[in-house]
Design goal:
Number of strands: 4
Strand order of the largest sheet: 2-3-1-4
Structural class: alpha+beta
Strand content: 25-35%
Helix content: 25-40%
Shape: globular
Radius of gyration: 10 Å
Largest sheet: 4 strands, antiparallel
CATH architecture: 2-Layer Sandwich
Number of domains: 1
Order of helices and strands: EHEEHE
Number of helices: 2
CATH class: Alpha Beta
Length: about 70
């Protein structure tokens, strides 16, 4: 499980954009977003972490990887 804090994700459109960006990396990934806490959880191996982080960043957001 990978977790990212995305402070600039503030609305439903943002959730849709972040989800779409992550699914572009791998459509089979499971994405769970907690908008009030700006938390994105992705069911993926740690090896995909940088690619997922880059995809979120490319969508216009600033993800911070959580430990």
């Amino acid at each position: 499980m990978l977790e990212f804090t995305v402070q600039d994700m503030t609305c439903g459109h943002c959730v849709s954009s972040v989800t779409k960006a992550i699914k572009a990396v791998d459509p089979a990934l499971s994405v769970d977003i907690d908008l009030p806490n700006h938390l994105v959880k992705v069911q993926a191996d740690a090896s995909a972490g940088q690619e997922i982080e880059d995809a979120i960043r490319d969508a216009g957001y600033t993800p911070e990887r959580r430990a």
